[in-house]
Design brief:
Layout: H1 2-16, H2 19-33, H3 38-77, E1 80-84, H4 86-99, H5 105-123, H6 125-128, E2 132-134, H7 137-154, H8 161-181, H9 183-190, E3 196-197, H10 202-215, H11 237-256, H12 258-264, H13 275-315, E4 320-323, H14 335-357, E5 362-366, H15 368-412, E6 420-421, H16 426-429, H17 431-463, H18 467-471
Parallel strand pairs: 1-5, 1-6, 2-4, 3-4
Length: 475
């Protein structure tokens, strides 16, 4: 017994407290189960571990860059600020967990539990009616992180392995059920290309597929509208992120003022540096650190996805992979993507102005990932079934909801203290409600969420006009 306790203490202190090693070991084991050669397992371990370490460098840089604006808004105007973006949300959760003496290793445990549960749900699809396996690794990490905080926030008594299992169960159900909801809309959009969406807008895609036909005419769609060529520069992540942060962050720095910032941030803003240069450098630093962070994500997620996908392909032949929302962009007029981005951005900007006018205690700063990927994806699916008008209304409302509910959620779940919220539309439509159920109803609320998620695919199946097509993943 003594040896067991000491072994667990060593594992806890050296692995669980070091998420980079924990995820590296998961990849190593996954490759070993796939009977890869030992040197390939070792290479996978190294890439996954280093990738996660790079992610942490990028996250740390974002915190360092964003700290002066948080402190400045609080000190000068009594405002709290948060960026609505999954990477800022990831970083906020990391800070929140550290504030209670924990690390994101529990997130990695939950991720593994959730993925295995998704496999089981598809394996028994005859009973569960689940046909999709969520394999978008970087999204799994982001979502598991936010849900870890929601569960740990609601249940302080379960801030341990049992809590990580609770997170894994609820997030695994969400991945399976949410991606399953997108099968019909995605098959209609792509002419039965054999995949579903496993991203941040799964419940939103299902909702848009239902309401968009009532908002417009699918024959009057974006294929007939031409957008200015110069807008194509925003296809590039770095350009889009740098421009957005220059507008938002730069404007806030201007409001805070040169004298105040020289006093608050003397190391980065010495007397020899002009105010214009400081604003430009500080704003574009976001794009730099986000690029570093995303590089790290790509490295470890690539290994994680390969180790998971190989296992799933062997166990679950015939299942539909749930992949990144960008896979749907090949089946739509290209101007639909920019159209959604523009309309969603306008919705966000107007709502942020509204927060200032009505003196909201929280200032929301837009993030690239929700304002681009959410709104572009919503426009793509809305345009297919409701045309231009539906794409405009749905992506605009998406932008409004991202800011409005994001401002509420970041307050309710105490993440304003750490400067970020997940920001994507499913984390406005679904997860704040789930979080409130757990906060107010405790374990009963958690059980109710499980019951709701289990019931959704059953209701889908019952409502399906053609049961055989449903089971074949065609609707």
């Amino acid at each position: 017994m003594d040896i067991f306790i000491k072994s667990f203490e060593w594992f806890s202190n050296n692995i669980l407290s070091k998420p980079e090693f924990f995820i590296g070991i998961i990849v190593f084991v996954g490759y070993a189960l796939l009977k890869k050669k030992i040197y390939e397992c070792f290479a996978g371990f190294i890439k996954a571990t280093v990738g996660y370490m790079i992610l942490m460098v990028g996250a740390g840089g974002l915190v360092t860059t964003f700290r002066p604006i948080l402190a400045g808004l609080g000190e000068r105007f009594g405002l709290k600020a948060a960026v609505i973006d999954p990477y800022f949300g990831l970083n906020a959760v990391d800070g929140a967990l550290k504030s209670i003496g924990l690390t994101t290793s529990y997130t990695m445990m939950a991720l593994l539990v959730g993925f295995l549960l998704n496999i089981l749900l598809v394996l028994f699809k005859k009973f569960t009616k689940i046909r999709t396996l969520f394999i978008t690794g970087h999204i799994m990490v982001q979502q598991a992180s936010t849900v870890t905080w929601l569960v740990f926030f609601a249940f302080p008594e379960f801030r341990d392995v049992s809590g990580a299992i609770m997170v894994g169960v609820i997030v695994g159900l969400y991945w399976a059920v949410g991606s399953n909801l997108t099968v019909g809309p995605t098959q209609r959009l792509t002419n039965n290309s054999g995949f579903a969406i496993g991203h941040q807008q799964m419940f939103a895609i299902w909702l848009v597929d239902k309401i968009a036909p009532k908002l417009g005419n699918k024959d009057k769609n974006l294929e007939n509208i031409k957008l200015p060529k110069w807008l194509s520069i925003f296809h590039d992540n770095i350009v889009a992120t740098g421009t957005l942060m220059l507008i938002f962050y730069g404007t806030i720095l201007l409001i805070l003022g040169e004298d105040f910032l020289r006093t608050m941030d003397p190391k980065k803003f010495p007397e020899t540096l002009s105010f214009f240069t400081y604003i430009l450098s500080s704003s574009l630093s976001f794009a730099v650190y986000l690029a570093i962070l995303m590089m790290g994500v790509r490295m470890f997620v690539s290994e994680l996805t390969n180790s998971f996908q190989g296992i799933s392909n062997k166990i679950l032949p015939g299942s539909l992979p749930a992949v990144d929302c960008a896979a749907s962009y090949n089946f739509t007029p290209q101007n639909a993507i920019l159209f959604g981005f523009i309309c969603g951005s306008i919705g966000q900007f107007i709502t942020i102005i509204g927060l200032l006018v009505f003196k909201s205690p929280i200032l929301i700063i837009t993030g690239f990932v929700p304002v681009f990927f959410d709104n572009a994806t919503i426009a793509v699916f809305a345009n297919k079934v409701g045309g231009t008008r539906a794409a405009l209304i749905c992506s605009f409302l998406c932008g409004v909801l991202q800011v409005t509910i994001g401002a509420i959620a970041v307050m309710i779940f105490d993440l304003y203290k750490f400067g970020g919220w997940h920001g994507n539309i499913d984390f406005e439509l679904v997860w704040p409600g789930f979080g409130l159920l757990m906060n107010h109803l405790g374990v009963f609320g958690y059980a109710l969420i499980i019951a709701i998620l289990i019931a959704i695919p059953q209701l889908q199946y019952l409502r399906a006009k053609d049961k055989a097509s449903y089971e074949a993943g065609l609707e």
